[in-house]
C-alpha cells in the first residue's frame, strides 16, 4: 500500500505532453467485473473477469476478455491495487494499441490526483480518460438536460473533469482528466463515443467482462470454484 501511495505521489507531479482528440482515433475501453456473491470490499485473490474493446468511429475493431484475480480488496484511493494489473493485461491483449483508453475509474479526481485511470495510462503509456457515474471527491452542478451539455468538476479549485450529458433525460456521466488528457479533451472523447449513456468502447468492454463471468458461472466455475 505504501508503495502505491509513493507511485501516486510521483505521478501527481508528472507533466507529460498533452494529447488531443481527433476524429478517426482508435478509442478503447476496459472494465473489470468481480465475481458475484462477495460482500464488502473484497480481498486479494478473488476472481475477476476483464474486458476490453477498441472502436474506430462506430465500428468495433478489436475485443479481448480474460479471467484474472483481484490484486487486493477495495480501499479508498487505492483501486489500482485491486484492478490495475487485471486491466493492464486485458488492454495489452487487444490486437492494436489504442490512441486513447476509457477507464471505469477517476483520474485527477483523487486525493493524490492519481486515480486508476491516470495510473493505468502511465503504465501503458497510453492517453486515458476516466468515465464514472459518480465523482470521488470533485464537486460541480449538473449540466442542462440536453445532449452535449457539460458542466465543470472542481477539486480544491482545480478543474479535474466535466459532467457530460450524453443523452437527454438521463443522468450525466463524469468525464475525468487522466493521463495526458485535460478536462476539455475528456469531455470531447466521451461525447464523440457515446451512442448510449456510456461511451461505446466502455459499454462493450463491460458487456464482454460480464459475459465472460456468466459463461464461467454456467460452466460451474463460480466464485467458490474458480481456479
Automatic annotation (TrEMBL):
It is found in: Cytoplasm. Keywords: Cytoplasm, Endonuclease, Hydrolase, Nuclease. It comes from the Bacteria. GO terms for molecular function: deoxyribonuclease V activity; RNA endonuclease activity producing 5'-phosphomonoesters, hydrolytic mechanism; single-stranded RNA binding. One of its GO terms (biological process) is DNA repair. One of its GO terms (cellular component) is cytoplasm. The keyword Cytoplasm applies. The keyword ATP-binding does not apply. InterPro entries: Endonuclease-V. Pfam families: Endonuclease_5. This is Endonuclease V. It comes from Gandjariella thermophila. The lineage of its organism: Bacteria, Bacillati, Actinomycetota, Actinomycetes, Pseudonocardiales.
